Automatic annotation (TrEMBL), chain A:
Species of the source: Shinella yambaruensis
Protein name, as recorded: Peptide ABC transporter substrate-binding protein
Keyword terms, alphabetized: Signal
Subcellular location: Periplasm
InterPro entries: Peptide/Ni-bd, SBP_5, SBP_5_dom, TAT_signal
UniProtKB/TrEMBL annotation, chain B:
Localisation per UniProt entry: Cell membrane
Main location: membrane
Keyword Cell membrane assigned: yes
Protein name: Peptide ABC transporter permease
Automatic annotation (TrEMBL), chain C:
Protein name: Peptide ABC transporter permease
Membrane disposition: Multi-pass membrane protein
Keywords of this entry: Cell membrane, Membrane, Transmembrane, Transmembrane helix, Transport
Residue span, ABC transmembrane type-1 domain: 96-306
Keyword Transport appears in the UniProt entry: yes
Superkingdom of this protein's organism: Bacteria
SUPFAM superfamilies cross-referenced by the UniProt entry: MetI-like
Xref: InterPro entries: BPD_transp_1_N, MetI-like, MetI-like_sf
Sequence intervals crossing the membrane: 12-30, 96-119, 131-159, 179-199, 237-263, 283-309
Amino acid sequence: MSERDFQFTRRQSLKFFGAAGLAAMAPSVLGMGAARAQDTPKGQIVVGFSQEPTVFNPHLLHIEVDEGVHFAIFDPLFDVDAKGNFYPLLAKEVPTVENGGVSADGLTWKVTLRDDVTWHDGTPFTAEDVKFTLELLVNPDFRSWRRTGHSLVRDITVVSPTEISWRMESAFAPYTAILASTFIVPKHGFEGADPNNAPFNNAPIGTGAYKWKQRVAGDHIELEANPGYFGDGPYLERLVLKYIPDITVLYTQLKTGDIDVLALQWISPDNYEEAKTLPDRVVEVFGAPFFEGLSFNLQRPQFKERAVREALYYAVDKQTIIDALYYGVPQATESYMPRESYYYNANLPVQEYNLDKARALLDEAGWKPGSDGIREKDGVRLAFTCSTTSGNHLREQAQQFLQQSFREIGVDMQIGNLPPAVMWGDHWMLSQFDMALAGLSCLTGPDPDTSDYFLSTSSPAKGGNGQNTWVYENPEVDELLKKGGALVSPEERLPIYQRIQEIMRHDLPFLPIFQYANIRGYKTGIQGVEANINNRIDTWNVRSWRWA
Amino acid sequence: MTAASSSPALRRRFRDNRAVRRFARNPLALLGLFMVLGLTVACFLGPHLLPFDELYIDLRARFAPPLTGAHIFGTDPLGRDIAARLFHAGQVSMTVGFLAMVISTVIGTVVGVVAGYRGGWTGTVLMRLVDAFLSFPSVFLLLTLAAFIKPSPMTITLIIAFTSWMEVARIVEAEVKSLREREFVMAARMLGLSNGWIMFREILPNVMGPIVVAATLTVARSILMEAYISFLGYGIQPPLPSWGNMLNGAQQYLAAAPWLAIVPGLAITIAVTGFNFIGDGLRDALDVRSHNG
Amino acid sequence: MARFLIGRLWQSIVLLLLVSLIGFMVLNLAPGGPLSQFALTPGMTKEALDRIAEQMGLNRPLPVQYLDWLWKLVQGDWGRSFRDNRPVLEVINSHLFATLLLMGASTFLSMLIGGWIGIRSAIRQGSAFDYAMTVACFVALSIPTFWVGLVAIFLFSLRLGWLPAGNMYTVGDGSFSDILVHLVMPACVLALVNVAIWARYMRTATLEVINQDFVRTARAKGLPPRRVLMKHIVGNALLPMITLAGMQLPTLLGGALVTETVFTWPGMGRLFLDSLGYNDYPVVMGLLMFSAILVLIGNLLADLLVAFVDPRIRLE
C-alpha cells in the first residue's frame, strides 16, 4: 500500500530500439521451439506481487500486474526480448518488409501461423482466433483497453487456418511492437457471450505454457503446467502468483522463504542494503522506463517564466534525494527518455544543485522577497501547492525535503496530497494542480513519439485529447513531432527526438529527477528470471523459468 | 474588582460542591486528569523547550534511536526530531479530538433535545436516524468519506464529528423525555414561554451532567478515530504531524526503527486512557446512570 | 411478534436506503472517478477514458445511476466489480469466510476471557483483582488496535520469531494447524478491546444478579457457592451478553477491518480497503450494504434470542 500510485504507472514499457530492433529481427533462440529434449515439469515457484491480478482477459482495461497472468497463459504472435529483438511465438516468423510479411508501403500484412498449437481445452489454434482477437479489440461494445494501431486494420482475411492477412488504413510503423504485446484469445471462448462479462474472463483459456487452475480471490492464483506447450517450457509443475498487499510483508516473506520470487512493487529501496546480505537470495536492480519529476502547470502565473522554473531546478538536491531517500538505487536523469533507449540524448546539460544561483536567477528576474521572506513580483507570490498521491511514503518524504530547499530560496511550497482517485482524475487531467510530483512515461508504446504529451493541441485543459497536462506550448516541438511521426527510418528520426529532449531540458515544463529502477529478489537456484525493459512485467518469460 | 472579591467565595463553593468532592476522591479520575493535563502541557509547552523544529529535515541524522544526543525520542526517516513532532502532533490530534467533540456534542444535543421534547413523529424520525447511524459500522463510513474528500484537519474533524454524535443524541433524548412532563416544564409552558426557550433554557441545563460525561468520552473516541484514519493514510497529511500519521509509515520500519511506532502509540494510549478515566470519574461524580448497559 | 417484525423490517429498509444514499453520494460526488487510476497508463488519452466511461454507463446523471443500481439491488443483482467483473456478492462471499473466522475466533476468546474477568471481578467486588482489571479494561479500550498489532508483530514475529507476521496461511499449506498459527496474533489483538467490553458488561450484569433475592435465597439455603454462581449468576447474566453480542457487531467489523490491514488477513476489511484504493465502487457499495445488513440481522437475532430465552421480555 505504500507505493500508491506508481503502481498504476508502470504498466507499459514495451519498446523497441528503433534501428537495432527493426534490423535485428532474426528469430532468437529463445522462442524457436525447435525439437529438443525437454524435462518433465517439476516443482513450483511462488511469485509474490503486492497488487492483486484481477483481469484475466488481456484486452480489457487492466493494470500492469494482470499481465503477470497473461504472459503465463497466453501468447502473442511474437514477442520482444531484453535486447529489443522480436522473436516468433504463435507466428512462424516475425513479419518484416524483408521476408514479405509487410509490404514496402507498410499497408499490407501477411502472417503465417504455427500449425502445431492447441488451446488448453484441446481445440486447435487457427487464423480465425487471430482474426477474432483483432476484431474484438475494436469492437465498439467491448471495453478494450487499447485501440491504437488496431483501429487502422481493415479487411482481415483468413487465407487458410495458418495464414492471415490484412490491410492498414495508413502506414503505422509501431504496429509491429503493438502486436508483440497483443495476446491472442480463442474465438470459441466467447461464443454467445457478452465479451465484457464472458465466463472466459474469469477462467481464461490460452495457448501458453501454463494453464488456469484456480483463483482464491484476495490471495493467490494457481496455474499448472501445460504439457502440450509448443514452445520452450514449461519447467514447473505449478506456478503460484501470490498477492501480498504490503511491500514490507512481501519482503519479509522473501526472507522467510514463503515466496520464491519477489516481483512487482519489488523491494523498497530502504531494504536494499539488508536484502543484498540475505543468504541464498539473488537481489538485483533493473531499470524501468519511468522518470520521477516535478510537473508544472504552466497556466499558473508563478510558473510562466522560465527563470522561475530554472531557479527551482537549481534548488532540487537530486543527489541527496536519490542517495538518502532512495538509497542510491535509481539514477539521476535529465530526460523523459529512458537511458536504455536508442533515442536517449546523453548530452543534455547536467543539473546543478546551487541555491545561490537559484536566488540570483530569481533576483534577476525581479522576484523580490516580501515581508515574510516569500518572493513576489507584480503582486504574484511565489507560492504554490505541490500534490501527489497520498500514502506514497518515499515520495512524501522527497516532497517535504524539497519544501525545505524551496523555502531557503524564498519560495513557499505547500503540500496538498490527494487520494489516487482524486489526484489522477480531473485534478491531473484537466490541469487543476499547481505542481505535481509524479512518475511518468511520455512514450506512446515502443515509439519515441510523444505527441500525446507534448503537442500544444494535446492539453485536455484546452479541449485537447492527449495528456499534455503541463499545458506546454512550443511551436518548434509541434513541428518536430509532426516531422518525426512521418518518418520511418530510425536513423532519420534520431536527431529529431534528440532535439526534442534538448528543448524540453531547456524549457523545463517538468523537472526530471531520476529514472526509476526496481529491486527484484529471488531464491538462488531459480533460473530464467531476466530483466526486460521492453516488456512490462517480471514474468514476461515465465515459460522458461525453472529450478536449477 | 468584583471578580477578585467574589473569587474566594467561588472557590469555596467549588470546593464544597458534592460532585467536585466525589471526583477528587476518585483516584482513577485524578490520574486521568493528571495524564491529560500533563500531556496537554507537554504538547503546548514542549515545542518551545526543544532545540528542534518539528519540520526541520536533517537527512544526516535520520533513524537516530531514542536518547541520541538531544533527540530524546530519536528521529524519523527524514531526520526530524520525534519529540518535537510528537508534541506538535499532540496539538493537532487533541485539537481535532476536542473540536470533533464540540461539534458532535452540539449536533447530538440539538437532535436529542428536539427529539425528546417534541416526541411524536419528529421524535421518531430523528431517533430512527440516530439508530441508523449507530447500527452502522462507522469505520467503513468514516473511511469512505475520508478516501474521497480532500483531507485537511478541518475535514477530518467534521468527518469524525459526523459519525459520532449519535451517542449524545440518544442519551439526551432519554433524559429530556423523562423531564418533559415535570412540573417546571409544565409551569414554563403555562407561562407561555416559547418551545425554544423551554428546550434550551429550561430543560437543557438539567441534562448537562450526562452531556459532559458523553462529551469527555467523545474526545477519547475522536482521538482514537483520527489515529485510525491517519494510520490508514486517509487522514491528516504530512508534513503536518498527527499521532495517527506518525504511525502511518511506521510499519515499514518496524524491524529497523521500532521507536517510530512505539512512541506515538504510547502518546495516543495515554491521551485516550486519560479522557476515559476522566469520563468515568465524571459519570460517578455527576451521578449519571450508565447508559451503555 | 408479527407487529414487531414488520416494524423492524420498515426501520431496516429506511436505514438501508439511507446508508446506500450516503455511500453513493460520497463515492460519486467526489472529484475523480473509478477510471482515474488508469490516467497514467502510457498512451492513455482522455478520449479513451471517456469512451470507456460511457460504455460502463458512468457518464449518466447520478440520480439515474443510483436508481438503476437500487432497482437492480432489489432484484438481487448487486452489480459487478470494476476490477474482475465478478458479481459483487460473489466477491464479498469469497472474503467472508476469512472475516468470519477472525471475528468468530476473537469473539470466542473475548467472551471466555472477558466473562471470566467480569464474573470474578463482580464476586470479589472491591478487591485488588477487581481494581486492577478495571484499570486494565480502561487501558485496553483506549489502545488503538492497529498499534497493538504493530507491537505484537514487532515482538512475536520480528524479535522472537514465534508467529508469522501476516497472512492467513502459508502458500501451498493451508492445513488446520497452519491457519491456527496464523490466526493466533490477529485474533488476540482483535479480542483485546472486546475482552474489556465483555468484562465490564459481565461485571455489571453479575453484580445486578448477585444482589437479587433469589441468589441470596439460594445462598441462604446453603447451596455450594460454585453452584449458585454457575446456575443463577451466569445463567442470568448471559442475557445482556446476547444483546451485547448483537450490538458489538459494528465495532467488531470495524476492528476486523483495521486488524486485517495490519496482518494482511484476506477478509472483508482488506477487500474494502483494496476496493477503496482501486475505486471499485460497486464493491465498496456492496460492502457498505452488506455490513449494514449484517449488523441489522445481528441486532434482530439478539432481540429475538433474548425474548426467547427470557419469557419476561415481550416484543412489542
